[in-house]
Design the sequence.
């Protein structure tokens, strides 16, 4: 197991469209375990492969509340097969944009089809925090960040601060 370095925005590696996984093998399972470990250590509730420099369609989530048992979900090639007309607005953050948060509007409920860590096809209906988290992580697989939903003004303020943060980190 290993902690993977998380890529900070803005970065061209966060803007790529990821490619499907052909076989869920042990290497994929090991990678997903590393992704979960990296997400828990951050700490965060979701992580996508491009955030750790991988271009495969893989995401992990765990929206368990503090004090609850962990509920890790590992999704390979996830796709939304249904989404509610009803929308939900919630504040989102992102491990690639640390310390920045903004309200994002998304369908409140979604049905997601994916392959689990054993390569078995699964379909789940998600609402609430899991729905928002999964949609946010699936956006990453298309090269979309939550700031892309904001006005150009708000987006540029955040990205300017991120550039400054990255310069400071490089200089340190
Ligand atoms: Ni994110």
Sequence:
């Amino acid at each position: 197991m290993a902690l993977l370095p998380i890529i900070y925005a803005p970065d061209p590696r966060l803007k790529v469209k990821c490619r499907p996984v052909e076989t869920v093998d042990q290497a994929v399972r090991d990678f997903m375990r590393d992704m979960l470990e990296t997400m828990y250590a951050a700490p965060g509730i979701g992580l996508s492969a491009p955030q750790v420099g991988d271009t495969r369609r893989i995401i992990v989530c765990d929206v368990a509340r503090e004090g609850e048992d962990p509920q890790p979900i590992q999704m390979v090639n996830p796709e939304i097969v249904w989404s509610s007309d009803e929308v939900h607005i919630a504040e989102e953050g992102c491990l690639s944009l640390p310390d920045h948060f903004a309200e994002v509007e998304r369908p409140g409920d979604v049905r997601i089809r994916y392959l689990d860590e054993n390569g078995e096809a699964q379909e789940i209906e998600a609402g609430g925090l899991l729905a928002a988290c999964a949609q946010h992580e699936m956006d990453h697989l298309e090269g979309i960040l939550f700031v892309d939903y904001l006005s150009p003004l708000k987006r540029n303020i955040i990205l300017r601060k991120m550039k400054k943060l990255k310069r400071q980190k490089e200089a340190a």
